[in-house]
Amino acid sequence: MKIGLYFGTFNPIHVGHLIIANHMAEHSDLDQVWLVVTPHNPLKKKSTLLDDYHRLQMVYLATEDYPKLKPSDIEFKLPQPNYTVTTLVHLEEKYPHHEFSLIMGEDNLKSLHKWKNYEAILAHHQIYVYPRISSEEENLELKNHPKIRMIDAPVVEISSTAIRENIKLGKNVRPLVPTKVWEYIDHNLFYKK
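Given the sequence above, the corresponding structure tokens read:
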């Protein structure tokens, strides 16, 4: 089975994440897309990041009606900090019959050369890249690499940061998150302060 791994803090997961994940599952040769919830990143302020399990629960709620989308907590069990190359090795050992690929936005492709062991990732895994609006000059040397697949997916510019800030300001963000995710956020009073 071909699995696309879509990594993120999903703080919170929003309709933009679902549009991209579902597009990849329906319009590429991937059989499933696993939304991999990334634990606390030491570079992000902890105060803005919900507990890992709350973010995982929101991904469960958001994907339960999409049979090709699966939440994953695989990185919760791995040593910190998380490196994608380590996660890939762990998944290959755990699921030897699956073929794993990465899903990322064009913005991440620009910095892929800074990732730990990025050459090993490129040697063994395809990377599906979806478009992002970018104000900076295109500098994508890796775009023509044989393992890179540019996917003509919808350009969705919704930000989890903006959603959190708007909740704090008392604005209505319901159209930006799945209904069950909104109910979970609202019930738990997340992002209010």
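The CA atoms of residues 11 and 161 lie 8 Å apart. Try to locate this feature in the token string yourself.
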